[in-house]
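[job 0412] stage=complex_fold ligand=S-adenosylmethionine status=START
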Amino acid sequence: MPRTSKKKSDTVSAATVAEPSASVDLSSLTLDATNGGGGGDETEPTPLTAAAASKPKSKKKKKKPASTVAGPSDPTIDYPALMSAFPITLRTTNAKGRHSVAREPLAAGVTVCLERATTFIVRTPHLQELCHWCMDPLTGEDGKEEKVTSHFACESCGVAVYCSKGCMEEDARDGHALTCGTVGKLKDVAERTDVDVDLLRMVVGLMARRVEDLKEVVVKEGKVDSDKRRTPFKCVGDLVHHRDKNDAAFIKVVTAAAEALHEIMPKDQLVPVPDIVTLACKVNTNAHGLGDSQSRNKDVALGLFPLGALFFNHSCTPNCCFVGQRHGQLAFRTLRPVPKDEELTVSYIDLYAPRDERRLNLLLTKHFWCKCKRCTMPIDKSPDRYLNGLLCSKCRKGVYVIPPSPTPESIMTPPTGDLSTRTYTCDTCGDALTHTAAETIFARADSKYSEGISLIRQRRYPAARMTFARLIQSHDPSASSAAEAGPLLHPRHVLLLNASVPLMNCYVYEGDHNAAVALNRRVLAMVEGAGAFPPNAPEVSDYWFNLGELLMEQAGEHKKAKKMTLQKKCEKEGKQAFRNCWEIRKVAFGEGHAKTAAAEKRM
Ligand SMILES: C[S@@+](CC[C@H](N)C(=O)[O-])C[C@H]1O[C@@H](n2cnc3c(N)ncnc32)[C@H](O)[C@@H]1O
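[job 0412] stage=complex_fold status=DONE, emitting structure tokens
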């Protein structure tokens, strides 16, 4: 398998470096792209609901493309009615499974779906940070502003906290009472069975929602104006679970946890143990992280959004993004103008990654082989060739193209055949580089990168700074020492971006704002020019926001040193950076979103 340099587990929150600084964690997406998942290749629905259990069996199964065949939908759910308020048409085809297309030409920044989670939870590390009903923050931005001292806690479970009595009462009415007696006991179950407590909280929330839905019709079809309306539990029945593709060890511990839930939960909420396990698999495959409503990037909540998961396929060049909103809602919004009948897609993963890395990520976490346009176009025409390629040592213009793995099987197994004769060719001058030479360069760069990450974990920031800086410098074609060297990582190589983010935060940590600003600008040029992100990508807005903050810090330093001209220059550039951020966010998040407002406030 060609090397792609960055392993998912190697990513480190840049925020861990920038302890006292204003820098954002740029290493994670606003919303963890754990959305969607599962999908078409499952054909057996889980009999969690009476409706699903009594579903007629499909007569003759046609042979369809394995990864995109839609499972049958519950015939009692009128999905077009549920989605009728949005300018989309729902379709099902053999090639794409269930999906949605634009019903009419759409401008950039149009909400094409707004869904309130069937259930959502505030994630355990953030339990005290936001209201468990409206999701407004209970503390100031990253603790910088004054802490809210008087908030309201549920005295029975000791888990749920709220920003107001009103929110506490709303949550009680909405079903908190059903889970209140259980949630306090889940930590113990999680510890005993070695299952993530948040997974258990989600599963318990879903089982309670099922009971709640049986009592009343929660959805008023076609109406989307209520903050409080949730997607009904029965839609969860249509989600794929990929249970068979999960690790046996995972199924074993979740089964033990499900048995433990049978000891502690009210009988009327329980479903059989195997159904609890299936629910857990559905949560794992389909649950969606929600970012905080401020300018910081961290997944503070987790929700299950069946409509979004059922009708938005993944693309590595998506025309939509998803945005977390108050009250556990998720909006899907267009990032660019979309012509009538074009499929609406989102990305489930980080897009600044080479093709193999993206496909492997989707295969391991979502269990499908991506067939989007970007993943299927010839590699020598695709921007993907730069993200894992090497700059040609002969012409210094082209890139030695590393071909991607052709099949899911080949991506999972080490490369075969005589590697000593394998070569990679420059797309510009045709020069050839041996596989062995390429591997040596990748191995060295990987090892330096891992060393830097390890130093960060040890909080040895000056040493980490030096390691990352050397790595980047040694692959900078304009640096004289590097120019002498052989092939270099291409300037758009993913490892250089991955090393730049922690390096930037090391600079901030050490108070070197000049270096941080210069690097942030280089990173912006990289992410804007690489063709990896779609227009108006939220990720790019984060780099602009970070640049704005760095420039304002710099302005503050100039002010202290009474360097008025420099101060004004930095302020002007800082405001422009916030404006650039705002321009993107008003499309991606919408004008009313807190993250858009955070940029607007400062521009
Ligand atoms: C969240 S579901 C999306 C809805 C799905 N089309 C369905 O009918 O249920 C994700 C599933 O859709 C399919 N899918 C989505 N995006 C895909 C892509 N880019 N390439 C191949 N299959 C994809 C895969 O089968 C995946 O498991």
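The first helix runs from residue 50 to 53.
[job 0412] exit 0
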